[in-house]
Structure formats: C-alpha cells, structure tokens
Amino acid sequence: MPTRLLLLSDTHVPTRARDLPPQVWHAIEAADVVVHAGDWTTPEIADAVEARAACLVGVAGNNDGPQLHARFGEVARTTIEGLRVAVVHETGPKQGRELRADAAFPETDLLVFGHSHIPWDTVSPAGMRLLNPGSPTDRRRQPVGTVMTVTVTDGRLHDVVLVPVAR
C-alpha cells in the first residue's frame, strides 16, 4: 500500500505567518508521514503539527531555538517502505549540492532539506533524490508558497508534486 508523504520546511510561524494556511493543515491531516525540514520558529507550531500528523519526522533549523534543537536535532533518518530517508535543514550553496549530499549521506535514497525557501528537485550522481519543498508561508523570490507531496511504494518515490499554497 502506498505511503503518502507531505514535505514541509521553513514554516516560520508566527514570524512570517500567524498560522499555517488551511490548505497545509488539510495536507498534514491527509498524509501518512509529515516530514519537516526545520525553521518551525516556535515549539507551539511543532506541537500543533505533531498533534495533527499521523507520523512526524522533523529537524531543527537555524531559526529554531534550543528547545527545538533538543527535541528534533539537526539530522533525522528513517526508513519508509524500504526507502532510506534523511532530513536536514541546510545543505549549503546550490553549486555542488548533490556531490556534498552523496558524501554526507551515503546509503540514503531521499534527502529532504530546506533553508532557501526555493523548491529543489534533483538526483545526485549516486542516485539520491534531493527535495526541498520551499516554504508555505514565506515565498521569498518565488511566485507562491509551496509544499511537496510524495508517494512511496515498495521503496520507490512516485508522484513527486510541488503544490502551490494559497494565502
């Protein structure tokens, strides 16, 4: 049976938005696994996401305080239907990202990251998929806020979709 993932990052609540948009809350409730790549900003939004998610995998980002760093750490690893997943907030400059990811995360099939607020979808030389869902609340130079949905079946990614978020 497929596992539905929702990829989030850089929610920045309440600094960039008072709350997550209703569309994102619905997506959290519909997902089998929510993956958050950091910059929650407050423990309260992490608590709210965790309360509504069937399963949460998350990390802390550079805008998260000591409480969130203690709770989540800076790297998360999990296996979802045989797919080896790693989550971090920051991967450094886009130039050379795939090679750095291969070196830092061997034996990883999917690396989810954030920080830039810019969606990213590439494959490293070793075959690792790198996904950044952007930000649903702070679009920066993007036309709209975004999240990603992914389906995992038998250890493989399917249906990777960048979802625009209405404000």
UniProtKB/TrEMBL annotation:
InterPro entries: Calcineurin-like_PHP_lpxH (IPR024654), Metallo-depent_PP-like (IPR029052), Phosphodiesterase_MJ0936/Vps29 (IPR000979). Coiled coil: none annotated. GO terms for molecular function: hydrolase activity; metal ion binding. Residues 4-154 form the Calcineurin-like phosphoesterase domain. It holds the Pfam family Metallophos_2. Its EC number is 3.1.4.-. The keyword Metal-binding applies. NCBIfam families: yfcE. This is Phosphoesterase. The lineage of its organism: Bacteria, Bacillati, Actinomycetota, Actinomycetes, Micrococcales.
